[in-house]
Amino acid sequence: DKTSVNGTMRYFQDLGLNLENAEIFVPLEIVQAPQLAELSKDSFIEGWKTVGADTIPKQKAYVASQLKQLSVDMALFKRVYRHAFVCSKEPNQKALPLENALVYWEMLFTSPGKPWVTGSGSTTNWTNLWIEFLKKKWTKTVNKDMWNQTFEFFQKTMQDDTLSFWSEDGAWPGVIDDFVAYVKQKRGELPDTMETD
């Protein structure tokens, strides 16, 4: 009823996927895989039936077309991003260990995912800032709310990297508020003395 880790990896290789980047999350979302290295028979059949790809060559072609769209189709990217959390955590856990979340954010927020970078002249690499901030300031796990709110924040910064959309009274989780303070400090918009817990 389900594949083993080896079977899943072999399948990904048959699809011609690079296992080191966001490519692996695309078929996992299509078949609604319960875990990173596990595909269940029913959802596998259902997922591919829905898109009309019943052979490996058709599946390979479909995944390739989705990968071309991944960085430009925000609805597709959001589905893949959200499912990445679902299939990456242990079945009995509600959250991801921070070190795992950092790896997956790096995979998703770089090509062929959607690079989290803004600006043309003075570029802001948000992925690097986010990872650097979390390594320094965050000691907890990453729950679903933090994972999903990070996506909402990512979308906002892609439209407005001045952060004018953010306010202290907003409904952002504390970790995002602290991150905004961290970024503003780095940009010289806040004094260095400001401590965030």
Word description of this protein:
The chain is 55% helix and 4% strand. Strands 1-4 form a two-stranded antiparallel ribbon. Strands 2-3 form a two-stranded antiparallel sheet. The longest helix is centred in the last third of the chain and has 16 residues, at 144-159. The radius of gyration is 18 Å and the shape is elongated. The protein has helices spanning 5-14, 25-30, 41-51, 56-69, 74-88, 98-108, 126-137, 144-159, 174-186; strands at residues 95-96, 117-118, 124-125, 142-143. The mean pLDDT is 92. The chain is built from nine helices and four strands, in the order αααααβαββαβαα. It has two domains: 2-72, Recoverin, domain 1 (Orthogonal Bundle), CATH 1.10.238; 116-187, no CATH class. The termini are far apart. β2 (117-118) and β3 (124-125) form a beta hairpin. It has 197 residues and is mainly alpha-helical.
